[in-house]
Design a protein that fits this description.
By secondary structure, this protein is of the alpha/beta class. The chain folds into three domains: 192 residues, Rossmann fold (3-Layer(aba) Sandwich); 38 residues, Laminin; 173 residues, von Willebrand factor, type A domain (Rossmann fold). The chain has 18 helices and 18 strands. The radius of gyration is 31 Å and the shape is flat.
Length: 490
C-alpha cells in the first residue's frame, strides 16, 4: 500500500478544534492542485503597545506565509493590510501590489504604532476605505469574495459589535484571531458565522504560524479539471470551486454543456476589433462600417444564436457596444452606423489584449461555453507588439480572423489569424474591394474541412428503420405460416 504523503497527514490534522477540513480540498493541496478563489483580502492587524516588537515581527511572518499560499494578481487575489492602535494606518492598498514578492516586501516594512487598541475604528476604516473601489476593491460580485482577517491581543477600547455587523452585512467575511489575554466575547462579536470556523485563539504570538495552513485551506479551491473530477468531452476550464466545459476550434458545445459537435448551427459570440487610426481616413471608415454590416447580414443574430460586439482602437481602445446589447440585425447595424471615427495611432497589440481581458469576459456579455470569434481589421503596421496577445487568443480557443487593407502587414495578419491561415486571413490593397472579403469570410463553427457525419448518420438511421420494417413483415409472415401449420396438425 502506498504510504500517505506527510503533507496530507498534516492537512488532515489541521490547526486545532475549530478547523473544518474538506478531504477533497486537502488532497488537492497535497497534490499541488489547489487554486485560490478570486478574493479581496484585507488583514487588520493590532499593533498596540501590548504587542511587543518581536511579537509584531511574528505577526508579519504569519501574514507573509498566508500570502505565499495565494494566487496573487489583479484578476485573482488582491491583498491589503490595515495597521491599527489608537489610530489607523493603511499600510497596503488592494491596488498597490500585483505580485507576491512585492506584497511580502511591503509587509516586512510595516512598523508597530504602539498606542491604544481601537479595533472598532479599524473595522470602520476597512469598511469605508480599504474595501472601497478607490483603494482597489472590485465591484461586489458572487465570483469575488471579500474577506477581512483581524489579529488582536487585547480588549478593544471602542465598540466593535455594531460596526462588525455593518461590515458583515456589506458582504465582508470576517475571521477573528485572538492572542494571549484577548477578550473572547469580542472576537465572537466581530466574526462571521459559523463562529467555529471564523474564531481562532492561540496562546502567544510565537505559535500564530500554526494558523497559516488553516487560511491557506480556507482560500483553497480544488482544480477539478486537474484532478479529473469532470465529464467534459474535450476541454475543461477551471473556475472557483467548479468548472465549465468548452470545445476545440471547429467544434461547438452542445446543450448538455459537456459534449462537443463539429456539426452544429449553435450560438456564437462575435467581436469586431476595428482599426480607427488616422491612416484609414473618414471616407474609408464609412466603407469599413458597411463591410461590418455585410458580415452581420450573414449571421443568425438572435438572443440564443449569434451575439455581436464592436471595439474600435487607435492609440487607445474604445468599446462601442458589448456582446448581447443588441439581439437583432436592425439595431446592430444602426449601432455600427453611429460609430464615430477615432483617428490617431495603431495599437493593435493593446486592442488584442482588450479583446482577451474584456470583450470575451462574462462581465461584458460573453456567454460561457459559447464559441468565440474575433474579427480584426487594420490598414497598417501595429505600433506595439502583438505576438503574445495574438498567441494567447488562439490558445484560449478563440477563432481569430485577420483582415488587412492598404499598408497592413501581411506577416502580422497571419500571426493574428487562426489555423489554417488561408481560411482566416484576408488582404486587399483597396478599401473598395472589402465587399469581396465580406463574401469570402465565412464564420462557420462547423468547418467545411471537418468530416461531418451528420447526413451519414441520418441515412444510416433510415436504413436501419427500413431494415427493421422489412424484418417485421417477414416475422409476421412466418407467424402466419406457423399458425397455418399448427391448424393442419390439429
Amino acid at each position: 500500500m502506498t504510504p500517505t504523503p506527510p503533507l496530507f497527514l498534516l492537512l488532515l490534522g489541521l490547526i486545532g478544534a475549530h478547523a473544518s477540513i474538506d478531504v477533497r480540498t486537502a488532497a488537492a493541496m497535497a497534490a499541488g492542485l489547489c487554486k485560490t478563489r478570486p478574493t479581496d483580502l484585507v488583514f487588520i492587524v493590532d499593533s498596540s503597545r501590548s504587542v511587543r516588537p518581536s511579537e509584531f515581527e511574528q505577526v508579519k511572518v504569519f501574514l507573509a506565509k498566508v500570502i505565499e499560499g495565494l494566487d496573487v494578481g489583479p484578476n485573482a487575489t488582491r491583498v491589503g493590510v490595515v495597521n491599527y492602535a489608537s489610530r489607523v494606518k493603511n499600510e497596503v492598498s488592494l491596488k498597490t501590489h500585483r505580485t507576491k514578492a512585492g506584497l511580502i516586501k511591503a509587509v516586512t516594512k510595516i512598523e508597530p504604532l504602539s498606542t491604544g487598541t481601537m479595533t472598532g475604528l479599524a473595522i470602520q476604516f476597512a469598511l469605508n476605505v480599504a474595501f472601497s473601489e478607490g483603494e482597489g476593491a472590485r465591484v461586489k460580485s458572487p465570483d469575488i469574495s471579500k474577506v477581512a482577517i483581524i489579529v488582536t491581543d487585547g480588549r478593544p477600547q471602542d465598540n466593535v459589535k455594531d460596526i462588525a455587523l455593518r461590515a458583515r452585512d456589506a458582504g465582508i467575511e470576517i475571521f477573528a484571531i485572538g492572542v494571549g489575554r484577548v477578550d473572547m466575547s469580542t472576537l465572537k462579536q466581530m466574526a462571521s458565522d459559523p463562529l467555529d470556523d471564523h474564531v481562532d485563539y492561540v496562546e502567544s504570538y510565537s505559535v500564530i504560524e500554526k494558523l497559516t495552513k488553516k487560511f491557506q485551506e480556507a482560500f483553497c479551491v480544488s482544480d477539478l479539471c486537474a484532478t479529473g473530477d469532470h465529464d467534459c468531452e474535450q476541454v475543461c476550464i477551471s473556475s472557483p470551486g467548479s468548472f465549465k466545459c468548452a470545445c476545440k476550434d471547429g467544434f461547438t458545445l452542445m446543450d448538455d454543456g459537456r459534449s462537443c459537435s463539429a456539426c452544429s448551427n449553435a450560438a456564437t459570440d462575435v467581436v469586431f476589433l476595428i482599426d480607427g487610426s488616422k491612416s484609414v481616413r473618414p471616407e474609408n471608415f464609412e466603407l469599413v462600417k458597411k463591410w461590418i454590416n455585410q458580415i452581420i447580414d450573414k449571421l443568425d443574430v438572435s438572443d440564443s444564436k449569434a451575439h455581436v460586439g464592436l471595439v474600435q482602437y487607435s492609440s487607445s481602445v474604445k468599446q462601442e457596444f458589448p456582446l448581447g446589447r443588441y439581439n437583432n440585425k436592425k439595431d446592430l447595424k444602426d449601432a455600427v452606423k453611429k460609430m464615430a471615427y477615432m483617428e490617431r495611432g495603431t495599437m493593435t497589440g493593446q486592442a488584442l489584449r482588450y479583446l482577451l481581458d474584456n470583450s470575451f469576459n462574462p462581465g461584458h456579455g460573453a456567454r460561457p461555453g459559447v464559441a468565440k470569434v474575433g474579427i480584426v481589421f487594420t490598414d497598417g503596421r501595429s505600433q506595439d507588439y502583438i505576438g503574445d496577445a495574438a498567441k494567447k487568443a488562439k490558445e484560449n480557443g478563440f477563432k481569430m480572423y485577420a483582415v488587412g487593407v492598404g499598408n497592413a502587414v501581411e506577416d502580422e495578419l497571419k500571426e493574428i489569424a487562426s489555423e489554417p491561415t488561408a481560411d482566416h486571413y484576408f488582404y486587399t490593397a483597396d478599401f473598395k474591394a472589402m465587399t469581396q472579403i465580406a463574401k469570402k469570410l465565412q464564420i462557420n463553427i462547423c468547418q467545411d474541412e471537418d468530416p461531418c457525419e451528420c447526413d451519414s448518420l441520418v441515412k444510416f438511421q433510415k436504413k436501419v428503420e427500413d431494415a427493421l420494417q422489412a424484418l417485421t413483415k417477414k416475422l409476421e409472415s412466418m407467424s402466419k405460416r406457423i399458425a397455418l401449420l399448427e391448424n393442419k396438425i390439429v
